[in-house]
Amino acid sequence: MNRRKYIAAFGLALFVTSNLVGLSANAGSGQNSAQFTRVEMPLVPGWFNGKPAYYVSTDASDAGVAAAMGANFVPALANALTAQPSATDDIYAVTNFVQSNILPSAALPAGPANTSAAYTPLWQVSTVTWNAGTTPYTLKSEADVRQAESAKMVTIAKTNIVVNCPIVFTPEGGKLPGIKLERH
Question: The pTM is what?
Fold first, then answer.
């Protein structure tokens, strides 16, 4: 069953606007449809292969991170770190320079035809800190992060924090089927 049919089967439609992603229910399509008509949540910008990408943040294994993200606190997500093969990929969060997170993988293409075995929505947070005496700049890909590390410009530290952040759009992979992108 493709994603669009799966969504329709539950009477739901996903839409994305400038900084919000929402879920709306069709009236009369299910027993709970009258309880809500629209749910909005932040659409988070990031970087993938040098281009903007967008994802939603729903869960975190760390209480403080969950609070900061406005997400569910899910300690069991940390169990994904010990799965074999790994159930997580890195997400790079710069600590001392304001920029969006860097994503090393994405669904290519987005949706049920994805062929990227590396993509997972479960991310192990790796902090990236610019070293003293360096001039920070926006890192837009995992290659940028690794190059800055090789040049001893940044220090990367893996944390034990896992976040669930499904990607909904990248220029390379397109948009997740069934969503509507709008510019405001």
Answer: 0.80
